[in-house]
Amino acid sequence: MGDFRRLWLADAVSQFGTRMTFLAAPLVAVLYLDASTFQVALVRTFETLGWLLFGLLAGAWVDRLRCRPVLLVTDFGRAALMLSVPAAAAFGALALGQLYVVMFLVGVLTVFFEVAHQSYLPRLLPRDELVAANAKLAANASVAALAGASAGGYLVQLVTAPFVFLIDASSFVWSGLWVRAVRHREPPVERAADRHLGREIAAGVRYVVRHPVLRPIALSTATIVFGQGGGMAVSVVFLVRDIGLSAGVIGLLGTVGLVGAVLSAGIARRLVARLGQAWALAGGTLLLGLAFLAQAFTTPGWGLAWWVASGFVASFCVILTNVVSMTIRQVVCPPELLGRVNAMMELTAWAVVPVAGLLGGWLATYAGTRATLLVFGAVACLAVVWLLAPPLARRTEIVGARG
Predict the structure, then answer these.
(1) Cystine design at 364: which of 207, 264, 318, 372 (Cβ 3.0–4.6 Å)?
(2) Sorting pLDDT into bands at 50, 70 and 90, what band is 142?
């Protein structure tokens, strides 16, 4: 377990820094570069465009390589890119174009990092430890999303938004050093004599499309992420310009949901055991959609309770659904296909984010940010429909049922 602790520490700090930038990047656009609502939405679009362009390629390459070197290269590469933002700001040369380019390139490296990271865990741990390990890693992501947002909000006010990128760069260096400290060495991947990149990618796509469990999970995830992505593209503008909040208060609101993330991480395993994997996944997905819908009802003053409650429920359900879906994926998939299946599952979700961001920015321009949150929240509520259709709805336990 020593190597998993090193991997967990690497992931925890890296996720924290990434989430600070996730808030700081649009705040740079809003407060430092005076961007329009649509231009702010483009920041999110460029950050996630890598999944659409390189997701399947990343899966095929990861299945050909050892995961640890991929993690190291992508960590140190992202650190170098992040440093370019405060460097340009220090000389008064930072522009929206550079911000778009940096976020796009960081997003591309993140695609390769995430696919390798998800494929590495089953190579590091036995199968019976995957649920607990996935719960800890999912907690990293959710806690970082909330605590990182809070810290990012305060630091934007303290040192101005571009210089928050310095901290994120440091977090990637930290992550790389901990990954480098992992002692486990993967054996070299056997290379087939007749290997063909196109055929390897197609095999991963076919596996997900034909799988009776992975297919509905992928479609459900894509729907919830589409709803979330459209709302998040305009959420900072909504809170700053419609509700009148400062960057620090926006960060503070995010910390409330930290309680939900910690609670879910602590009881996810018992909750899944009690409800069964299928119903834990469906129930968590439904509540997650309703949480995103509730954001649209936020108003100044006591009406901020809607945003707080949404953050608590969403963070709880993100942990729960991620733990179930990731464990299912790692167990039902043959090891030689895991990188490509991970990439296909992530692509199905993240490829919709650039489209959602563009649509969210366009809709907010003409209908306002509150209407945009309402529309995309309603879309997120539809995600559970995929999980209620046969054959998934007839199952209670999923793990162990291959193909």
Answers:
(1) 372
(2) low
Residue ranges of alpha helices (H) inside 257-299 are 258-275, 277-294
Q: In the numeric block, which tokens belong to residue 314?
A: 């969403």
Structural domain boundaries in the chain:
2-180+196-394
C-alpha–C-alpha distance, residues 315 and 325, integer Å: 16
CB atoms within 10 A of CB 368: 15
116 within 8 A of 72, measured Cβ to Cβ: no
With a CB cutoff of 8 Å and minimum separation 6, the contacts of 66 are 186, 188, 189
pLDDT band at 401 (very low <50, low <70, confident <90, very high): very low
Burial class (CB in 10 A: 0-12, 13-18, 19+), 401: middle
Q: State the pLDDT confidence band at 38, using cuts at 50, 70 and 90.
A: confident
Question: Which of 346 and 256 is assigned the larger pLDDT?
Answer: 346
Q: First-to-last CA distance in the chain? A: 30
Q: Tens of pLDDT along 149-177?
A: 666 666 666 666 677 788 888 889 988 99
| Residues written for the chain | 403
Cα dihedral sign, 123-126-128-132: negative
Q: Whose structure tokens read 């790389």? A: 176
Q: What is the pLDDT of residue 12?
A: 79
Distance in angstroms (rounded) separating the CA atoms of residues 94 and 82: 13
Q: What pLDDT score does 280 carry?
A: 86
| Structure-block tokens of residue 178 | 């901990």
| Calpha distance 98→104 (Å, rounded) | 10
The percentage of the chain sitting over the pLDDT mark of 70, rounded to a whole number, equals: 84
CB atoms within 10 A of CB 198: 9
- Burial (CB count <10 Å: 0-12, 13-18, 19+), residue 14: buried
